[in-house]
Structure formats: C-alpha cells, structure tokens
Amino acid sequence: MLRRLGYVAIALSIEATTNRTCRLRNATPALLRRLIALNLEGLHAVLQFNVQNGILLYRISSQIIPFASHPVNRVPWWDEFRADFERLRAFIRRHDMRVSMHPGQFTVLNSPRAAVVEASLKEIEWHIRFLDCLAPDASHKVVIHVGGAYGNKVAAADRFVQAVRRLPESWRRRLVIENDERVYATEDVLAISRATGLPVAFDWLHHTASSGGRLPTTRTLEACFDTWKEGDGLPKVHFSSQAPGGRKGQHANWIRAAEFERFLETAPERDFDCMLEAKCKDLALFRLRRELQRRGMAGPWAA
Questions:
Q1: Is residue 27 part of a domain?
Q2: Is 40 inside any structural domain?
Q3: Is the pTM of this model over 0.85?
Q4: In the chain, is it the N or the C terminus that has fewer CB atoms within a 10 Å radius of its CB?
Q5: What is the CATH number of the domain that holds 258?
Q6: 244: in domain
C-alpha cells in the first residue's frame, strides 16, 4: 500500500525557497556562500512545513547549491555548512522522512560525446555528495534518465550500462533509473536495471505516453518494484497526469483523482512511495488528498 505521498521542490503554500541563485558573472565565493546558507535555511522551513502537513516524501531542488558542478563554485559547501546539514539530517531522521534529487535533462551518461559525459558525472557527483551530507541512508535516492538513442538505441543503452559499471559503489547505491516517454520505455529500463543493478522508479505518465495510452498492468509494476533490493528503501513511483493540449508526456497542473485511483487499484499489494510531479506542487497534493478522502479511499491522506 502507499506509504508516503510527496511533491517536487517548491512549496507554493509558503514563501520559503531553496532556489536562490545569481548570474554566473556575479558568482563570487562570498555571494555563493550567502545563497547556499539561505537555500539550506529555506530547505529546513520547507521540511518543517511538510511535516506539519503529513508530507514525508520530498524531492529537493537541484538549484539548492548554485553552480554546484561549475568551476566557478569553489566553495567546499559540504564542509563549511556541516552544522546545517547535521540539523537537517537529524530532522529528516526524527520524522522518518525520505528525500530525493533528480538532476536535469542534460545529465546524460550515454552520450557519445566525452565532454557531455564528463559534465554529467560532475552533476551526479555533487548530487550524491549532497545526499550523503543530508541522509546517509541509501534509501534517499538520485533519479536519472538513461538518455538518448543517438541513432543506435542498443549501442546507447550499452554505453549507459558500461558507464554505470564504472561508477564508484558509493554512487551506485544512490542511483535510480526512470522510464521516459520517448526513448527508453519501461521494458527498456527493466533490462538496463538487470544489467546494472540499479532500481527502477516507475513513471506512470511516461509509461502511458510511450505505450500509446495503455495503462500499466500490476505485473509491470511488480517487475519495477522487484528491482528495489534491501537497503534501497521502499519502491518509488512517479505520478502525474497529462497536461490537456500539451505535448505527449507533459505534466498537468493537477492530478486527476480518478486516474490516481486507477493507479492505486493497479499497484501490487506491497508498500511503496509515490512522488507527484504536478506543476501545482504541494497544492496539487493537498487537492488530491481531499478528493481521495471524499472518495473514501484509504491511505496516508490525513495531515
């Protein structure tokens, strides 16, 4: 059954933010330190808000450390802000929260261009380091996509597998792969999971978009859930509804309660967590909880 329901990055209900940044030309060490301090303070405020509202699953913005993988950021933030991380880590552990991160679309390990792969490794490295500072338990994950096909999907998938196999074990324990709506469908990422050992975060919208609207079966979800091993934490699902009139796979502002109810009916009878990827963020989560309560659905809806 569903254990935790979460949202991505921005809490629209409050003014706290974790996304403060600056222009590259203004990114002095002093300014970066100030922005990082403010973003970590904002993260604490958001986590407090989440706990107060019964939200124990949360994806942290990749903007929290400005220019984290860029040479301009020479601040050893993992060391200088150790006290902030210790406070956040204690809060997360005390409330049994689960946090994650999701590097952007340009984090592509299977690119045929060495420079792109190198940049992607730097992006993954700082995300891993951030979660290591915040939540040593490996159930707190960094989610990545496989990447592109580059004219030869088989070769591109193999490049991804080889790249993952070269990663340090301390990185691999954090990483999760996700199906997408264009290139790597659910069956593709399941095959890559078998080759790499990485768990699969099943994305409902991406699956339905890539399959021509066909809903996943319980067996499909079970196969994804089975990729999560001891130490990985509960299986995770990403859920969003299709944006009306938007491109295939574009997230809607809100979650359609009837669609989410179908998902819950399809899910295997085992514990899992679900991240909502709606554009209205926490507001979409609150609306969905109210609608599910009205429908009499059991679950972690009540704050």
A1: no
A2: no
A3: yes
A4: C
A5: 3.20.20.150
A6: yes
The percent of residues above 90 in pLDDT, for the chain, comes to: 92
Domain that holds residue 220: 2-16+104-294
The pair of structure tokens assigned to 57 is: 């699953």
Number of compact structural domains in the chain: 1
Three-state DSSP string of 142-172:
EEEECCCCCCCHHHHHHHHHHHHHCCCHHHH
In a domain, 34, yes or no: no
**Rounded Cα–Cα distance for residues 228 and 118 (Å):** 28
Summarised one tens digit per residue, pLDDT across range 7-57 is 999 999 999 999 999 999 999 999 999 999 999 999 999 999 999 999 999
Q: 5 has which bridge partners?
A: 274
The CA dihedral of 200, 203, 209, 214, to the nearest 10 degrees, is 80
Beta strands in the chain (DSSP E): 2-8, 57-59, 98-100, 142-145, 175-178, 200-203, 236-239, 272-276
Tokens of 297: 């659905």
